[in-house]
Design goal:
With about 475 residues, this protein is of the alpha+beta class. The protein contains 16 helices and 22 strands. Helix content is about 35%, strand content about 25%.
Length: about 475
């Protein structure tokens, strides 16, 4: 029976474990699977709580339907009926501009407009800012092959100008990655815009052509799901179902499949096999050793790095070079009549030049049903990130004071929240800096020289839930082979 250990019980590790169970059944290959998790619960960043009738997402609140891996997993788990879509009536978001919430112009996709009239009439940009953005229509491509990596800031300044960067790209894209656009790799995060420049030369032209063809396609078939999806009882549903499926096979009756989930088991280091036929040795912080024929490290790269320091120093060093940023989510419960704003959108983002404490805020109970009782509202604010790391140095009370002060000014909040939940996420957001994909290729090469080792997680090829599922399932396939 092949012994496989997965270290890390976040969504990446859970997806890897589940896929291994599936593959073991498909290939009729007996395995003994051990999942080692440092904390007392599975799910890692995914954490949903219920309090006084509110459904609180401490980490992610949704995943995107455009990337197929999460949906495919959900189908195989048979929990598709528990999916919920966003409230289409309010499908738009706002951007803070000179202290006011302005709707993001219709057809604007992260960097550039795809529709003429909403762009012309928006007051997010000045007239000179709009003219500079329109210059994208006539500017040449950067170079013929366009293969160099480039930061988001450099790309947007070059094609659309400084105002487009400060007023739109920084808060929209920087907000998703909680990143500094001056170092964020466009190739690793939004390669479609580089591709657009290569194919169409102009981003605006590319966007316009793309939206025209999407409109034609949608006219024929219609998209099945909204862009963002969650579950009736939050993202935790996925974790709970995976946990149930993995634990299902704990029965010692099965001689083909044995699984073991060990919580509160933090791994300290990994020792390489002396020959290809001997096993890996996993050493926990308590000094316990566990042997495995194959190991998946489903951990943030900076956590995986020290585990490999002695056994694979070059790999360990590459892993340590991926930077992470910290953030905090602040869930605030209100009575509806204590907020003056109409809350007719999914939330807002805040450009750095607005000099606020908030970087973004989701109107959680507007975006998804079932997040707050009748006549109440749940808001979820974000602070910190690469550009405002000092916010995480404040204590919870001070963070809440600053968030409430911003909400009073921006949303016309008049009353005190019924309760507030602060969740700190220290070094939880990987920063895909310029050169990231090259580093990941180096990491892949070094891993391929260590038979029986695989990496998974948000540090490499995407930080969203579907990316993590993909990375876990890819690692499972590697280990099974
Ligand atoms: C605030 C926030 C909001 C987000 N919002 C979204 C969103 O809306 N949509 C979306 O798609 N994505 C979102 N993301 C990103 C996404 O949630 C994460 O990228 C993803 O959940 C990471 O999963 P993971 O399994 O790779 O890592 P983690 O969730 O970090 O799991 C790693 C696990 O390893 C364990 N561990 C650590 N060290 C050890 C050790 N030495 N030994 C054993 N175990 C160890 C940890 O306890 C943890 O359980 C968000 C992230 C954050 C922080």
């Amino acid at each position: 029976m092949k012994r496989i250990a997965i270290i890390g019980g976040g969504i990446s590790g859970l997806a890897a474990a589940h896929r291994l169970i599936e593959l073991s059944k498909i290939n009729q290959q007996p395995i003994h699977l051990t999942l080692l998790e440092a904390s007392g619960q599975l799910g890692g960043t995914i954490q949903t709580d219920e309090r006084d009738g509110f459904l609180i997402e401490r980490g992610p609140d949704s995943f995107i339907s455009e990337k197929p891996e999460a949906l495919a997993l959900i189908n195989r788990l048979g929990i598709e009926s528990r999916l919920i879509q966003t409230n289409e009536q309010y499908r738009r978001s706002f951007i803070v501009n000179k202290g006011h919430l302005i709707p993001v112009p219709e057809g604007f996709q992260l960097l550039a407009p795809s529709r003429f009239w909403p762009f012309i009439t928006t007051n997010i940009f000045s007239l000179s800012g709009k003219l500079r953005m329109a210059a994208d229509l006539i500017l040449p491509r950067k170079d013929a092959n366009g293969r160099d990596d480039e930061s988001l800031a450099s790309f947007v300044r070059r094609r659309l100008g400084r105002e487009a960067l400060e007023r739109m790209a920084q808060p929209m894209v920087g907000g998703i990655y909680t990143a500094d656009p001056e170092v964020l790799s466009l190739r690793a995060t939004l390669p479609r815009f580089l591709e657009m420049e290569r194919v169409h030369r102009s981003l605006i032209l590319g966007m316009w052509r793309q939206s025209r063809s999407t409109r034609n396609q949608t006219g024929v078939s219609g998209a099945r799901y909204s862009l963002f999806l969650s579950f009736d009882k939050g993202t935790q549903v996925l974790v709970d179902e995976l946990q149930r499926r993995i634990a299902d096979f704990r029965s010692p009756l099965s001689d083909r499949l044995r699984t073991e989930v060990r919580m509160n088991t933090k791994v300290r280091r990994l020792e390489q096999p002396s020959s290809e036929s001997s096993p890996w040795t996993i050493v926990t912080v308590n000094g316990e050793t566990i042997e495995a024929d194959a190991v998946c490290l489903a951990l943030p790269s900076y956590v995986a790095s020290p585990l490999l320091q002695h056994t694979a120093p070059k790999l360990s060093s590459q892993l340590s070079q991926i930077n992470f940023a910290s953030t905090a989510t602040i869930n605030l419960a209100f009575r509806r009549l204590d907020i003056n704003h109409k809350l007719d959108g999914f939330g807002f983002v805040v450009p750095l030049i607005e000099k606020r404490s908030l970087i973004a805020c989701t109107f959680s109970s507007v975006k998804f049903p079932g997040r707050a009782p009748q006549d109440h509202v749940l808001l979820r604010a974000f602070v910190g990130g690469a550009l405002q790391s000092e916010m995480l140095e404040l204590d919870d009370n001070e963070i809440v004071n600053r968030v409430e002060s911003d909400l009073r000014r921006l949303l016309g909040v008049t009353g005190k929240p019924l309760f507030v939940e602060v969740s700190r996420w220290t070094n939880a957001m990987p920063q895909y800096e310029v050169g990231h994909l090259e580093r990941v290729s180096n990491i892949d090469l070094l891993v391929s020289q260590l038979p029986g080792l695989a990496l998974a997680g948000n540090s490499y090829r995407g930080a969203g839930i579907p990316d993590c599922v993909k990375s876990g399932e890819r690692a499972a396939k590697c280990l099974m082979e």
